[in-house]
């Protein structure tokens, strides 16, 4: 379904950290001594900066020059997750882990002179606009991303709540880039919600992001308890479009479903050296007998992949859906002088079976593709969006029902466009539930969820 749920967790934030790997905040007592060659190149850098300041045809801000040099050093690593974090971003980053921030609500990587979307966060502006994993942002407010530094691009994507932002998007399978217009919001995310699907005696937990620290872990444990008491004999954990978050939270949630002393995830550093292995603990509250299926897709990254990999390899859960994103590296967030920070990739994650997540992702036990629009159907929807017919239609239809479906069919007929009924229903349902965190999942519209429930014994 060509749909983008848009929430820019200060884009900048999601931008390249897919928060999952942002796990260690380290303080530095001293910086490693620079080698003789390093001192030579540092001297050359100072000389170049001096010539720029004194001789370049246009006056330049010294701060901009040095930050550009720092960013250039990090970009030379060829790693989209290692990056410079200025003072303002460092403060925003601290707020972001608490679940409240401004922006458009999307997780991003910076690579090949563009921002690549890991996942839009449900309920945010990016999600509402229908942005998808693997979409590339190639222009921001009319300026090409390749002509901007990362810091400049992040700055352009940030802004006051209520202000607008335009971006040009390049999407696989679509010939021409297209524009989206967004309005920045104060993003307040509810990280978890749960429902009891009585007709299937199944508990459903949607985890939007691995954030909120211990509160989210407690809420999830309570949700499982309540679902069991309601009569749930099966459990679905939905990690689709979950871009990750905190490592500790992924470990704690996995521990809830695993017998003691089973490996959850291992972390290896330079040269493949084992840094640490995280294992399940002895604890009073465990759920070891309820059958579990985990839903993943291309927007499931980092912490989502750690949880899915841990339960899959320990044969504790079936993984259902499509291949996950493949973000399995650890970034140290290291304080620098004067309040800035730097994110450096220092390690990679491995599932209990010894498989690296990074660049590969988690392969489901059962591949189940969602109902998706054909190329012709995508073109039809894009045409409706471009003619500004979608928003007025949604504003005149308060809820998803048969009347809305039939009226949409009439709209298509009037515009001489064709879309299958199954795609119409899913499109309208997704569009009309925007902004509602309490919309119960529909088995008739979610083939992946329905199949996952049927696979559990």
TrEMBL record:
Any one Gene Ontology cellular component term annotated for this protein: outer membrane-bounded periplasmic space
Annotated PROSITE patterns: PDZ
Example GO molecular function: endopeptidase activity
Keyword annotations of the record: Hydrolase, Protease, Serine protease
Coiled-coil regions listed: none
SMART domains: PDZ, TSPc
Domain of life: Bacteria
Domain PDZ residue range list: 90-158
GO annotation, biological process: proteolysis; signal transduction
CDD domains noted in UniProt: cpPDZ_CPP-like (cd06782), Peptidase_S41_CPP (cd07560)
Identification of the protein by name: S41 family peptidase
Statement: the UniProt record of this protein carries the keyword Protease: yes
Keyword Ribonucleoprotein: no
NCBIfam families attached to this UniProt entry: prc
One of the Pfam families matching this protein, by short name: CtpB_N-like
Membrane-spanning segments: none
Record-stated family: Belongs to the peptidase S41A family.
């Amino acid at each position: 379904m060509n749909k983008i749920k848009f929430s820019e967790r200060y884009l900048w934030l999601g931008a390249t950290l897919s928060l999952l790997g942002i796990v260690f905040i380290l303080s530095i007592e001293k910086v490693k001594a620079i080698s003789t060659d390093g001192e030579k190149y540092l001297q050359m850098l100072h000389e170049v900066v001096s010539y720029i300041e004194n001789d370049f045809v246009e006056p330049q801000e010294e701060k901009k020059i040095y930050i550009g040099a720092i960013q250039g050093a990090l970009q030379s690593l060829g790693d989209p997750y290692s990056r410079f974090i200025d003072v303002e971003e460092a403060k925003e980053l601290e707020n972001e882990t608490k679940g409240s921030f401004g922006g458009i609500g999307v997780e991003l990587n910076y690579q090949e002179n563009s921002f690549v979307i890991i996942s839009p966060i449900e309920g945010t502006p990016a999600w509402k606009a229908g942005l998808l994993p693997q979409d590339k942002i190639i222009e921001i407010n009319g300026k090409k991303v390749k002509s901007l530094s990362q810091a400049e691009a992040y700055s352009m994507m940030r802004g006051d709540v209520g202000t607008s932002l335009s971006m040009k998007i390049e999407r696989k399978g679509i010939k021409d880039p297209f524009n989206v217009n967004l309005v920045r919001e104060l993003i307040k995310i509810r990280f978890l919600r749960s429902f009891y699907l009585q007709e299937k005696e199944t508990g459903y937990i949607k985890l939007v992001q691995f954030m909120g620290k211990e509160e989210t872990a407690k809420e999830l444990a309570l949700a499982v308890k309540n679902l069991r008491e309601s009569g749930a004999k099966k459990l679905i954990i939905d990690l689709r479009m979950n871009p990750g978050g905190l490592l500790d939270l992924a470990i704690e949630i996995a521990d809830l479903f695993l017998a003691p002393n089973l490996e959850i995830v291992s972390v290896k550093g330079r040269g493949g050296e084992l840094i640490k292995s995280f294992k399940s603990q002895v604890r009073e509250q465990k759920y070891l007998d309820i059958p579990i299926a985990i839903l993943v897709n291309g927007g499931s990254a980092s912490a989502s992949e750690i949880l899915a990999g841990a339960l899959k390899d320990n044969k504790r859960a079936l993984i259902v859906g499509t291949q996950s994103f493949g973000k399995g590296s650890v970034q140290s967030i290291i304080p620098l002088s004067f309040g800035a920070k730097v994110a450096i990739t220092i390690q990679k994650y491995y599932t209990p079976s010894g498989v690296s997540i990074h660049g590969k992702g988690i392969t489901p036990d059962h591949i189940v593709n969602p109902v998706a629009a054909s190329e012709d159907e995508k073109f039809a929807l894009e045409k409706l969006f471009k003619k500004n017919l979608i928003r007025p239609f949604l504003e005149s239809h308060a809820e998803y029902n048969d009347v809305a479906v039939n009226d949409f069919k009439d709209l298509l007929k009037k515009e001489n466009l064709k879309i299958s009924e199954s795609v119409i229903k899913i499109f309208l349902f997704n569009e009309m539930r925007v902004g509602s965190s309490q919309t119960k999942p529909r088995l008739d519209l979610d083939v992946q969820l329905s199949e996952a429930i049927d696979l559990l014994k």
